[in-house]
Design a protein that fits this description.
Radius of gyration: 15 Å
Largest sheet: none
Distance between the termini: 58 Å
Order of helices and strands: HHH
Shape: globular
Number of helices: 3
Helix content: 10-25%
Length: about 110
């Protein structure tokens, strides 16, 4: 049998980072991926919620208002270990801040 390299696991925490929750492996509708990164296809700046992100609703989370028509960059996004780090935080603002902290981008945000 051929020896294959192990498949890349998006939930393996990168070297040098503290261990994260292995429990979150699916989208939790926390809204962080629709708010934290800049999304050029939608003219969305860093740290600003997408205009298509609907308000958070109990039991549903933050859902995309154009999910069926969302751009390829959004379709290509897959939950990873960062989701396990940000999803448990209680507010979208806290989730966005932590997401940006992980990637070293918090200093790029304007002061609140």
């Amino acid at each position: 049998m051929p020896d294959h390299p192990p498949a890349h696991d998006l939930f393996t925490v990168p070297a040098g980072m503290p261990a994260r929750s292995a429990l979150t492996r699916d989208c939790t509708a926390c809204g962080a991926c629709c708010s934290a990164p800049d999304i050029a296809a939608l003219h969305k700046p860093l740290g600003v919620p997408c205009t298509h992100l609907q308000p958070e609703r109990p039991g549903l989370g933050c859902l995309c208002g154009i999910y069926e028509q969302r751009p390829q960059v959004c379709r290509s996004y897959a939950p990873d270990w960062v989701c396990g780090e940000v999803a448990p935080l209680p507010t979208l603002e806290q989730r966005v801040r932590r997401y940006l902290d992980i990637y070293g981008l918090s200093d790029a945000l304007p002061l609140a």
